[in-house]
Amino acid sequence: MLDENFQEGFEALRGNFALKLQDKLADLISFEKKLEETNYKLEVLQELYQIIHSISGSSGMFGFSEISEAAHKLEEVLKTVIKGNIIIEPKIINQIKMLLSGLKKEMG
Amino acid sequence: MKPTLLIADDEKHVRELLKMLANTIHLDIVGEASNGVEAIALFKEKKPDIMILDINMPRITGDEILEELTSELENTCVIMMTAIVDREDVEKCIKLGAKYFIRKDTPIYKMAKSINETWKAFELIRENKNKEKFNLKQLFDEIKDDKMLKDIV
Predict the structure, then answer these.
(1) Could you tell me which chain A residue has the CA closest to the CA of B21?
(2) Which domains are seen in chain A, by residue range?
């Protein structure tokens, strides 16, 4: 169903997306500071969720499955926190830090 | 005639990929929206055969769009796209008129196949519904003209 022209176009888009991922990685690194400064406030975690959600979805679409998976794990934890099902305690903050570090590693 | 398609996703590179995919499977792209407000306006203007809708969009989310348009979706095959398939989201969107869910990490060839198959199934059902409607209309017209009653007599 998908011909050679499609494959060529897909590879070009994938290349562009890979560059975007580097921008997103830079965003994440600067966002980490914000998280520390605000002591992982719920509003800031909501912002982080939006960034991670977009990384999770689009990286999967472009075939970066390891990044997508790492983002997805963090997204799940953030979603639970945002829905109010988990209190933001040190254990959760550590889990978020660990998952964020794992994601950055995959993106780097 | 090619089926018409509206794409709604806040990420440009995702829209670009979907447009490429749509061209490959011979869909006619009639609009692309980068947020929920645009998606609603374009839907009302274009009345597409297919709408690919991202759940997590700024301003108005995909499920909120369905809520807004639910009474106008009879002739549109709505396919939701999402990073995570959350059971609650799926149930809600299906109730509101979505026909299928595609995870964004689905391999691209499978995505093309799913869009195509969902559309074909929807088109068949839509055609049958329209035929039934036409038959009913014909019947009412005949009753109105008294032809049926005359025939019975």
Answers:
(1) A6
(2) 4-107 (1.20.120.160)
Which pTM does this prediction carry?
0.83
A3 CB neighbours in chain B (<8 A) are 24
Q: Reply yes or no on whether the pLDDT at B147 is more than 70.
A: no
pLDDT per residue, tens digit, chain A (108 aa), is: 677 888 899 999 999 999 999 999 998 998 899 999 998 989 999 999 988 988 988 898 998 989 999 998 999 899 889 888 777 889 999 999 999 999 999 998
Number of domains forming the structure of chain B: 1
Domain carrying residue B119: 4-152
Q: How far apart are alpha carbons B31 and B21 in whole angstroms?
A: 14
Contact A58 B14 (CB under 8 A): yes
Question: Which of chain A's residues have a Cβ under 8 Å away from the Cβ of B24?
Answer: 1-3, 6
- From the list B13, B17, B116, the residue facing A20 with the nearest CB is B13
Provide the percentage of residues in chain A whose pLDDT is more than 90. 54
Cβ–Cβ gap A76/B109 under 8 Å: no
Going by C-alpha positions, the residue among B86, B91, B65 that lies closest to residue A79 is B86
- The alpha helices in chain A, defined as continuous H runs, are 4-37, 42-61, 65-82, 90-107
Q: Which two tokens mark A106?
A: 């995959």
The residue in chain B having the minimum alpha-carbon distance to the alpha carbon of residue A60 is B105
Q: What is the pLDDT at residue B91?
A: 87
CATH label of the domain that carries residue B54: 3.40.50.2300
Cβ–Cβ contact A104 with B under 8 A: no
Task: Give the Å distances, CA to CA, from A61 to A34, B18, B82, B90, B98.
Answer: 29, 10, 10, 19, 21
